[in-house]
Design a protein that fits this description.
The protein is elongated. Strand 3 and strand 4 form a beta hairpin. The chain folds into 2 domains: about 60 residues, no CATH class; about 150 residues, Jelly Rolls (Sandwich), CATH 2.60.120. The strands form 4 sheets. Strands 6, 7, 9, 10, 12, 13 and 16 form a 7-stranded antiparallel beta sheet that branches. The chain has a 6-stranded antiparallel beta sheet with strand order 8-5-17-11-15-14, with no helix packed on it. It is built from 2 helices and 17 strands. With about 230 residues, the protein is mainly beta. The longest helix is centred in the first third of the chain and has 17 residues. Helices cover about 10% and strands about 45% of the residues. It starts with a helix and ends with a strand.
């Protein structure tokens, strides 16, 4: 009799060790297999992630696994990021659709410092907005050495133009500033724009100069220009 009781106990122990429990399923495939939604009434809250794992659901097996938070951080990539710098060979391009007085810098995809070449077109020297949203944009231009005899007669400066459905609009601009240094009237011919702008998918963004018709083209050879752009919000 004692032998039978011990055998029964051992059998039950084996079942508890190796069995799988199914809820709403007769064929569980995990230690606990829930065929349905799960509700948890209370969870402790943490203010920092070190020492914790994040739970994730495998879309194929629906199994819950733990994920190191740093994997999520490193896997996030902003595919809209693009930056370029031009230090030689600068020329200003004038197209009929541009607003009056605006001429674009002839940036090339090969001059990018960050981002995918697919975001920029050498055909019209523009960055194409891949998805609608708010973008951070910066553009800097130094004309010649950055300090010239007065060239303010035509209010030259930097500008950003957006082309949407064939219509080009200047969305921001800033003139070069002047300074009187003793007897010289000089222009600080370096300026930049840094702000947030809203775009639609397919918009084209051009970076160039406004009021530039009075500038000495010969000084463009010693000029530099750079820009960056990336999406920050939908």
């Amino acid at each position: 009799m004692k032998t039978r009781i011990c055998s029964a106990i051992l059998s039950l122990s084996a079942i508890s060790i190796f069995s799988q429990v199914g809820i709403n399923t007769a064929t569980p495939t995990a230690t606990l297999d829930v065929n349905g939604n799960v509700k948890i009434r209370q969870l402790p809250q943490t203010t920092a992630l070190p020492g914790y794992q994040i739970l994730a659901v495998n879309s194929g097996s629906t199994e819950i696994t733990q994920v190191d938070p740093t994997i999520i951080y490193t896997s996030i990539t902003n595919t809209t990021v693009y930056a370029a710098k031009k230090t030689s060979g600068i020329s200003l391009l004038s197209l009929g659709l541009f607003p009056s007085g605006f001429r674009a810098v002839n940036f090339l995809a090969a001059e990018r410092t960050l981002g995918s070449a697919a975001l920029f077109s050498d055909t019209d020297n523009t960055y194409t907005i891949p998805s609608a949203g708010t973008y951070a944009v910066g553009f800097t231009f130094r004309y010649g050495t950055g300090l010239q005899a007065s060239v303010l007669a035509n209010s030259p400066g930097v500008g950003i133009v957006r082309t949407r459905a064939g219509v080009a609009t200047t969305i921001d601009s800033r003139a070069f500033s002047g300074a009187n240094l003793l007897v010289l009237s000089l222009t600080i011919s370096e300026s930049s724009l840094n702000s947030l702008y809203t775009f639609q998918a397919g918009d084209k963004v051009s970076f160039g100069l406004v009021g530039s018709t009075a500038l000495d083209v010969g000084l463009l050879g010693s000029s530099t220009a750079s820009f960056y752009i990336y999406k920050v919000s939908n």
